[in-house]
Amino acid sequence: MRSFTLLSLLVLALNGVEPVRGHASIWHPSMYGFNVTDKTFPYDNRPVAPLTNYTFDQWWFHGHLNYPPNPGDYFELPAGQVATAEIACNKGATTWFNSSEGGDIRQGNSPCPNSPTSAYHTTGFSDLKGCALAIAYESNVTKIQPEDFTVFTINQTCVWYRFTDFAVPARMPPCPEGGCHCAWFWIHSADSGGEQNYMTGFKCNVTGSTSNVPLAKPQVPRRCGADPDFGKPEASPGNCTYGAKQPFYWFQAERNNMFEGTYAPPFYLDLYNFKDGAQDDIFIDSYADIPPPSPNSTVVPVLQQPQGTKTIASSSSAPSAASSSLPAPSSQPTNQVPFGTAPGRCSACVKRRSQGSSNLQRRSLPFRWLSHSNVNAKRKFSLWHPF
Ligand SMILES: *[C@@H]1O[C@H](CO)[C@@H](O)[C@H](O)[C@H]1NC(C)=O
Ligand SMILES: *[C@@H]1O[C@H](CO)[C@@H](O)[C@H](O)[C@H]1NC(C)=O
Ligand SMILES: *[C@@H]1O[C@H](CO)[C@@H](O)[C@H](O)[C@H]1NC(C)=O
Ligand SMILES: *[C@@H]1O[C@H](CO)[C@@H](O)[C@H](O)[C@H]1NC(C)=O
Ligand SMILES: *[C@@H]1O[C@H](CO)[C@@H](O)[C@H](O)[C@H]1NC(C)=O
Ligand SMILES: *[C@@H]1O[C@H](CO)[C@@H](O)[C@H](O)[C@H]1NC(C)=O
Ligand SMILES: *[C@@H]1O[C@H](CO)[C@@H](O)[C@H](O)[C@H]1NC(C)=O
Ligand SMILES: *[C@@H]1O[C@H](CO)[C@@H](O)[C@H](O)[C@H]1NC(C)=O
């Protein structure tokens, strides 16, 4: 009983009092750094650790190029269908918990079990800033440069669900022999932490291709959507980058392509013409001509290829209307928890949380809690910020 009280207090303290520094990554055996822990490098370089002000070698593929996946492990991208990825603050919260530091801490669809939403840097569902998957059609990872990655799918409601769907464009051509390389990119809301970039590289392969048309050379994205926080109520569609776009490389010590300030981070949203879902206009034949973008331009390019799916065709061909707003409430999937019931907020979830902590208690009591110092016990409860 006494232990229970102490444990509860500890959990409360970690969730409420300590500055929360939980972070996130995509997790899959095809990733670089799958088994990297906070001990592998002289600094905390777990896949979930944020990348800020790093040298190129430190941030590129998270510095994990020497920690490749096992041969044959690829993340499959079915052309024209959905690929479901797992995003979490700790490997223990995913399907691959059995090779994690802390064991099975899975909790349904929660990316960060037993944590407030600040653990994944958001104040709530309306404060989500999206994440991206990018691809390079190159099997030799050392040949890939940042300018080679093209964002091919966006999920504007991440990080929120552990199981996050990414729509793969129908016209993705096949990968070369040996497969492709992909990477997950995320920059979170400015009101939920510092200037943090996330990049997790992985091996991927397109399956079910029906097209051989290659991707266009990706360009740097431009801030062209409505930006009411910065006195810009209307979008400027003529200022957008259209077609294939690079991911954001921001706030590193080297090789940035974005130079926005601390409080105006670039986001994988309409703000940078990253529409939710499959990026169907990234191919060399997607546009006959792309006029040079500029703030006062009113000219926008016209899609010339019939695009993947009906929904996407309509949103891509009407950029002026569609690019002006953040995801509207109607974009909330109907089969998901409603707005305002973040895992850390609703009462049912509070109940789940306390059950979660007693599970932790049960698991940890026999060894850690009784035989180790408080510091070790604390580590046990703080899987995603072990310091
Ligand atoms: C980046 O790191 C350098 C060297 O460690 C330091 O001098 C500089 O203040 C840092 N910049 C930011 C924005 O953190
Ligand atoms: C990661 O660790 C697990 C468990 O030790 C092992 O089975 C797997 O092969 C490792 N994966 C890589 C890529 O090192
Ligand atoms: C760990 O779990 C994964 C996913 O379920 C499975 O493929 C793998 O064989 C398991 N590894 C061990 C060592 O049990
Ligand atoms: C990969 O690319 C590097 C750099 O271009 C080259 O030195 C190396 O031989 C290549 N490896 C393979 C297996 O082709
Ligand atoms: C984003 O992921 C969520 C959770 O998996 C899913 O419901 C939603 O449809 C995805 N959005 C897009 C545009 O694929
Ligand atoms: C990638 O997928 C294609 C289509 O299914 C397959 O033919 C190819 O062998 C796969 N490549 C790798 C490296 O697994
Ligand atoms: C146009 O895009 C540039 C580059 O991202 C950005 O700095 C500028 O604020 C944008 N201007 C307008 C009016 O959208
Ligand atoms: C763009 O429009 C703004 C506001 O209408 C104006 O102040 C500015 O001079 C124009 N810039 C160019 C390059 O035409």
From TrEMBL:
Residues 307-339 are annotated as: Disordered. Its main location: secreted. Residues 1-22 form the signal peptide. GO terms for cellular component: extracellular region. GO terms for molecular function: metal ion binding; monooxygenase activity. Residues 313-331 have a biased composition (Low complexity). It is found in: Secreted. Pfam families: LPMO_AA14 (PF22810). Belongs to the polysaccharide monooxygenase AA14 family. This is Lytic polysaccharide monooxygenase. It comes from Pycnoporus cinnabarinus.
